[in-house]
Amino acid sequence: MRRFIPFIIALGLVALLPLVSPSDFYINLASQTAIAALMALGLNILVGYAGLTSLGHAAFPGIAAYLVAWLSTRGGLGPGAAAVLAVAGTFLVAGLFGLLALRATGLGFVMITMALCQIVWGAAYRWTSLTGGDNGLSGVPRPFGDLLDPTTFLWLCLIVLAVAIIQIGRFAESPLGAALRGTRDQPRRMSALGYDVWRIRFVAWLVAASWGAVAGLLYAWYHQFVSPHMLAVTASAEILLMVVAGGAGTLAGPLLGAALVVLLKNLASIWIDRWVMLLGATFVFIVLMMPDGLAPGLIHLRERFRKRMSSPTITPPLASQERIDG
Amino acid sequence: MAFWASQSLNSLALGGLLFMLAAGFSLIFGLMRVANLAHGALFMLGAYVGLASVQAGLNFWLAALVAALAVGVAGGLIERFLLRRLQGRTLPQVLLTLGLAFIIADACLMVWGGDPMRLPPPEELRGAVRLGDLAFPRYRLFVMGASCAIGIGLWLLIERTRIGAMIRAAVDDMQMARAIGISASALFSAVFCLGAALAGIGGVLGGPILSVYPGLDADMLPLALLVVILGGAGSLLGAFIGAYLIGFVYTFGQALVPDLAYVILFLPMVAVLAIAPNGLFGRRLS
Amino acid sequence: MAEQALEVANLSKIFGGLPAVNGISLSIAPGERHLLLGPNGAGKTTFFNLLCGDLKPTQGSVRLFGEEIIGLPPQKRAAKGLGRTYQILTLFPQETIRRNVMIALNGLRPGKWGFWSALDNNQALVEEADTLLERVGMSDIASRVVSQTSYGDRRRLEIALALALSPRVLLLDEPLAGLSREERVTVQRLLDTLPRGTTILLIEHDMDVALAFAERVTLLHHGTVVATGTRAEIAADPRTREIYLGA
Q1: Helix, strand, coil percentages in chain C from 3-state DSSP, rounded to 5
Q2: What's the pTM value of the predicted model, to 2 decimals?
Q3: H or E stretch including B135?
Q4: Is C28 helix (H, G, I), strand (E, B) or coil?
């Protein structure tokens, strides 16, 4: 549990933000970042640990957000009941989607996940009688009465984020986490050792979807409004960007990436008109220069800096290349 | 009767556009194993460049040519200076194209603004052809014809020319192709240029039907993917059949069940994936 | 007749008209050391892939201690006692040697689904891994990350991972491939320590090691069995020389 201390401290510092912040703007920004971080953490399970790049992750927060919005407005349920049903509903849909998506890996998986998310988007956009179409659903009530002010809401988001970090962090070090990374690196070997590779991936898919659903709840409560935009290809792409930019396969990576994207989006647009282009350019830069993402990239830079400062060390030579026989 | 006839023609026209879009994507994917997520943005770029050329006084056909060349060159630059640096690493390459899609889309927004714009069809192709009671818009007939012409042209290129033979060899077995002296890098550049140019010309030709607006890229890319998943990546025939199939499903879906039109669009994909994960024709998606 | 460890009947795999494996029939007794000989392209690795489930056969059957395994996915065959090493190494490069073995040991256990406690905290598993590593003579490098080890060590680890299953039948696909002479000796020593009860089917090009290790030999060519017999018989068979040196 000790390795979570830096994360808890960081979250704790953010929790103190309301005490020093001049306006609600920054508190809300922090909430947005926390929600984005939650989405990125979930996607990282697929991209980083399972080696499955999904371009449809926005479907999970999207479905959950729409469900909780609909159930608590037109459906007449209280926010709590709506939340539970929303997560359950998303979980079921995720199960169905997983059965389809996991028929492929690699680029096929990218395309199928994108297509599946598009189906949900299409329903949200066109099925106006149900989803409000382009106008979305508004007036979503927050839990614990409408008394949830920006500060309390931030603390709610941070608590949820902390739980996610701990659960996913422990998952990563657990036997199942090691097995998941094994299916990423050596799926044939894993099968030959007795692991059910499909089932392990399916479990990872469901866990990722579940955290996405939780993020969707917070999103719906934060904005008190849902619209098809959160289900668009660009939304999924942004989450993927967060994971890849920050560093897939690490725990801090998605958090860094989320902060980068949200801050760029909100703060850069104050000074620069074209934040989308900046986002794209940053992404291109990171992919070219630090293909492993910010977190490992920064660690790598720190290592290189350290090596240059101290005397050269002898690294063990890599062994002879494996012969690839016919 | 008129309803079915005109919707069918619309389907064929849409199918034609989708084929131009998907053919380029499929070529690039088939040869380079790169899912070019900037493909929708290149389509949109072609539409805008074509529109700008027409507004600058060029006739429609020259504008189309300019657009195809401009987007083709853009594609070539992207491949040569960016993609090539990530040689062999398909996932980073795909992510790179994603970042580029953002950039191109925002650049178009910056240059041409946020209002949807109409690209008028050329003089010669305005109006409709009458057949009894039925009127068929000339332009849509043309788009269908153009896509068939392009399809045949591509087929001839792939099957009957030396370059085509090199592409086929490299798609089948890259190492072997390199071993007999085929320059993979030159081939990649050429194919990426061609794919981009196809997207560009699709954008211009699609202008009069789809109009030109920000978000066109995000609308078109999933459709391209859909066609490629259905038809099988790397297969020209698959792209052709897939494009027209989607054209029909979408057009009739829109007309008959507008609420669910988009959803039914993806049902064929779901069905195909459930039964044949490699698409109807082609190479492995994974 | 006593139950055979591996009973292969008329196994074929045809790739679009080209038979990679063409009607192989083979019987291997429990505890036997059996060598699969044949030039490159003879179908040996394809045969292994059919046996362990990475490939589906066009026809034929394979019985493992009397049980039909064709149709079972690879993980079920592992559960029935079939172990395998790969010609191209299939290790987990970012993990330590010890963790590689721990992951392998967990493969057939319910504990592999654990998602809360850390893998490293499982003391019993750590000890079991260390015991296995000691048996194969790799205790000194147990804590080293695989990417920092020599090729010879990696080949030994490849075998150790297969041993973690305590397999009844072990398929070794060119365990000595690409090794220097010194490294060859260490791996050979490992092979000698393999439990007598384990049935072993070996593909190997190093003739000295292979023939010394094997009791029975099957000669493959163009996906079919040319000859089967004791090592003496096959060594003396004129077809062996022909296939390796001639046409």
Answers
A1: 40, 25, 35
A2: 0.88
A3: strand B134-137
A4: strand
Query: Residue C2: what pLDDT?
Result: 64
* pLDDT over 90, % of chain A: 51
The whole-chain average pLDDT of chain B stands at 86
CB contact residues (below 8 A), chain C span 68-87, against chain A = 73-75, 78-79, 83-84, 86-87
Element (H, E) at A9: helix A5-15
**Alpha-carbon span B86 to B89, nearest angstrom:** 6
Chain B residues with CB-CB distance to A107 below 8 A: 29, 33, 35, 90, 94, 233, 285-286
Per the model's pLDDT, the better-predicted residue between B53 and B134 turns out to be B53
**Among C75, C87, C103, whose Cβ lies nearest the Cβ of A178?**
C103
End-to-end CA distance of chain B: 44
Q: What is C6-245's CATH superfamily?
A: P-loop containing nucleotide triphosphate hydrolases (3.40.50.300)
CB-based contact A126:B277 (threshold 8 Å): no
For chain C, the average pLDDT equals 89
Q: Which of residues 6-45 of C touch A (CB under 8 A)?
A: 40-41
Q: CA-to-CA distance for B219 and B11, rounded, in angstroms?
A: 17
Place of tokens 């009397």: C66
Question: Could you report the predicted ipTM of this complex, rounded to two decimals?
Answer: 0.90
The reply to whether C123 touches chain A by the CB within 8 Å rule is: no
Domain ranges, ordered by start, for chain C? 6-245
| Confidence class for position A316, pLDDT limits 50, 70, 90 | very low
What is the residue extent of each domain of chain A? 2-230
Residues B37/B221, Cβ–Cβ less than 8 Å = yes
Which tens digit of pLDDT belongs to each residue from A191-237? 999 999 999 999 999 999 999 999 999 999 999 999 999 999 889 98
Mutate to test the interface with A, among B37, B77, B83, B91 (most CBs of A within 10 A): B91
What is the rounded distance in angstroms from the CA atom of residue A180 to the CA atom of residue A46?
9
